[in-house]
């Protein structure tokens, strides 16, 4: 592949965000129009693929192929796009729209590119009840020049070359980036992908009804759809997706996100979708799966309205002197449990404080534990959210647990297991998610899945040597290549330094990725062996019985059970590393000085 998906995502974001900065629009103003254009690009790419498929066996009449109709595309689960809503039509329009004498769907003349794009969105909404009133139609807020540049940015031919659901990934990437930038929204509409994916991987949706009663931008639906599709089934046929979202803006994002990924569902928003007071889809006791990242620590909730809406199998939580629920965490927890049918599974994000809160919360937690349906409890490190630094926990219920683990709970403390993205953000890498998932498999007795993961590691590394040996060899290879790169860059002339560094950086990235995989494989095998037998690991995981949990005062805090792992020597020589950092700093200063000399010389030559 000529260009990696990661680089393509970054390039597209940087190009689009540069336009935003030039226009002085806020991220909030810019978010929906940009996501709408990515949606248009996706719809068009899917349209062209389905069109080619239909035309393969299209009958002809009097030597002419029968024209395509909307019903042909509906039969293929794709949107039919009228000519004026097709991406290539929009991107190839003349600069002067007024002179083109274009008319909108109602026959009125259009004089700006913004009006033309608004009309395209309306035409698409006419083709889909799911999208009715959902797509952004505020493109006249952008200048025609800016809008034309955006259309060109997302017309990148690489999107078609790389294949797969790449536009869907790019849509998610942009939501991710906007979530980090839209501080006023507190990141409420986006749950980090690694948390969503962990929930989906442990819940393992297969078929049935899935509810997210705080659905935000729909990440739970998208990841569940991917999980089902990867198992060889069609997500739209196997699953029925229901969502509730108080903020209508977020519900729009959700419906667009689902459509970009080829999913359909029923999403309700506004006051009728306030989950505290409404079971908007009448799903109490009927769901196969419940997944959510609800807002934490909500206060001023009306207990009477909650009780009238039912879904409180363990009773009402704490009510203060003002006759209000001052912390609604256990309302959410009760609702999630109540929505499940007799074999349902739930997974959700929750404030860490809820695992050990007292008074009526503790009484609810005790009743919940005594059902035998609490399955797995995760502690997550801080900095997993874009606008919050506090740690959180993941809760999992399973009403269909096997007898062997009916009265047991798996506790996992993952606060020291993550990948640092930057100073403000942590996440789980794909391999780290697989490793944590493997602990759950072994707890459930699913050793064949564990063996499948080891096979996946061997295939990724392309070697059958023990993982510890591979990690040592790759670490030595990385160190040697770094020394070689440093010498080569220092020896290169000024014009060749950047290219030489780039070449070595690419090699180092590939080698470092392999080293990371080998380290993660070794991390797993060191703890659970090649055969894969569950064992409690100090500081990481512990299977606790109901009696042990009672002895801990009905706490569901993983740290109370797993203990503290011994501190490991990371093998880094402090003096050597500090010397390396000092050399790197001097090198960067030298490059900076060279660059300033070049700029100064260029300005002199220009007479400035």
Task: List the SSEs and their pairings.
Blueprint (H helix, E strand, L loop, with lengths): L4 H19 L3 H30 L3 E2 L2 E2 L4 H5 L12 H5 L5 H4 L1 E2 L5 E2 L2 H13 L18 H10 L4 H4 L4 H16 L11 H11 L4 E5 L6 H12 L4 H4 E7 L2 H13 L4 E5 L17 E6 L10 H6 L20 H11 E12 L8 H11 L3 E7 L11 E7 L9 E7 L4 E4 L2 E3 L2 H14 L3 H15 L5 H25 L2 H35 L12 E5 H6 L7 H4 L11 H32 L3
Parallel strand pairs: 5-6, 5-8, 6-7, 8-9, 10-12
Antiparallel strand pairs: 1-2, 3-4, 9-11, 10-11, 12-15, 13-14
Helix pairs in contact: 1-7, 2-9, 2-13, 10-11, 10-17, 17-18, 17-20, 18-20, 19-20
What does this structure look like?
It is a single chain. Among the domains are: 150 residues, N6 adenine-specific DNA methyltransferase, N-terminal domain (Ferritin), CATH 1.20.1260.30; 240 residues, Vaccinia Virus protein VP39 (Rossmann fold), CATH 3.40.50.150. Strands 7-6-5-8-9-11-10-12-15 form a nine-stranded mixed β-sheet. β3 and β4 form a beta hairpin. The protein is globular and about 75 Å long. 50% of the residues lie in helices and 12% in strands. The two termini are 44 Å apart. By secondary structure, it is α/β, with parallel strands linked by helices. It is built from 23 helices and 15 strands.
Summarize this structure as a short list of keywords or feature phrases.
608 residues, alpha/beta, Ferritin, Rossmann fold, two-stranded antiparallel ribbon, 23 helices, 50% helix
């Amino acid at each position: 592949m000529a260009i990696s998906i990661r680089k393509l995502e970054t390039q597209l974001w940087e190009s689009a965000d540069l336009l935003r900065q030039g226009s002085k629009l806020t991220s909030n103003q810019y978010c929906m129009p940009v996501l709408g254009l990515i949606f248009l690009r996706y719809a068009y790419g899917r349209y062209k693929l389905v069109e080619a498929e239909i035309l393969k066996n299209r009958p002809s009449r009097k030597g002419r192929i029968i024209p395509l109709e909307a019903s042909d595309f509906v039969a293929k689960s794709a949107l039919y796009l009228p000519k004026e809503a097709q991406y290539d039509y929009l991107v190839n329009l003349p600069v002067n729209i007024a002179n083109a004498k274009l008319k909108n769907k109602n026959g009125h003349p259009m004089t700006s590119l913004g009006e033309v794009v608004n009309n395209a969105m309306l035409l698409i909404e006419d083709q889909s009840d799911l999208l009715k009133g959902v797509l952004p139609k505020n493109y006249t807020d952008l200048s025609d020049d800016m809008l034309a540049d955006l259309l060109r940015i997302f017309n990148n031919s690489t999107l078609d070359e790389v294949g797969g659901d790449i536009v869907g990934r790019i849509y998610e990437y942009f939501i991710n980036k906007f979530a980090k930038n839209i501080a006023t929204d507190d990141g409420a509409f986006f749950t980090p992908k690694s948390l969503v994916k962990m929930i989906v991987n442990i819940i393992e949706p297969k078929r049935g009804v899935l509810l997210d009663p705080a659905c935000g931008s729909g990440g739970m639906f998208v990841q569940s759809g991917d999980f089902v599709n990867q198992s060889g089934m069609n997500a739209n046929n196997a699953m029925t997706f229901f969502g509730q979202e108080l903020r209508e803006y977020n519900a729009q994002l959700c419906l667009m996100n689902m459509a970009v990924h080829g999913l359909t569902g029923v999403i309700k928003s506004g006051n009728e979708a306030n989950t505290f007071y409404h079971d908007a889809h009448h799903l109490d006791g009927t769901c196969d799966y419940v997944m959510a990242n609800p807002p934490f620590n909500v206060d001023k909730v009306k207990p009477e309205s909650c009780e009238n809406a039912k879904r409180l199998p363990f009773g009402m939580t704490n009510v203060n002197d003002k006759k209000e629920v001052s912390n609604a965490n256990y309302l959410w927890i009760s609702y999630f449990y109540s929505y499940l049918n007799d074999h349902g599974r739930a997974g959700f994000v929750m404030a860490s404080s809820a695992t050990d809160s007292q008074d009526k919360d503790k009484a609810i937690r005790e009743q919940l534990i005594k059902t035998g349906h609490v399955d797995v409890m995760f502690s997550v490190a801080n900095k997993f959210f874009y606008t919050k630094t506090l740690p959180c926990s993941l809760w999992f219920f399973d009403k269909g647990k096997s007898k062997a683990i009916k009265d047991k709970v798996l506790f996992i403390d993952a606060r020291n297991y993550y990948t640092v993205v930057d100073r403000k953000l942590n996440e789980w890498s794909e391999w780290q998610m697989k490793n944590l998932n493997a602990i759950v498999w072994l707890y459930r007795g699913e050793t064949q899945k564990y063996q499948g993961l080891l096979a996946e590691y061997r295939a990724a590394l392309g070697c059958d040597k023990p993982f510890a040996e591979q990690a040592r060899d790759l670490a030595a290879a990385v160190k040697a290549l770094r020394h070689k790169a440093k010498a080569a860059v220092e020896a290169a002339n000024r014009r060749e330094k950047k290219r030489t560094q780039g070449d070595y950086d690419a090699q180092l990235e590939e080698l470092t990725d392999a080293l990371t995989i080998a380290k993660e494989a070794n991390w797993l095998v060191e703890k659970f062996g090649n055969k894969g037998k569950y064992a409690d690991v100090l500081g990481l995981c512990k299977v606790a019985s109901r009696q042990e949990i009672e002895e801990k005062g009905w706490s569901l805090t993983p740290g109370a059970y797993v203990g503290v792992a011994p501190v490991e020597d990371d093998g880094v020589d402090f003096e050597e590393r500090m010397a390396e950092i000092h050399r790197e700093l001097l090198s960067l200063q030298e490059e900076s000085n060279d660059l300033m000399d070049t700029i100064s010389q260029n300005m002199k030559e220009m007479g400035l």
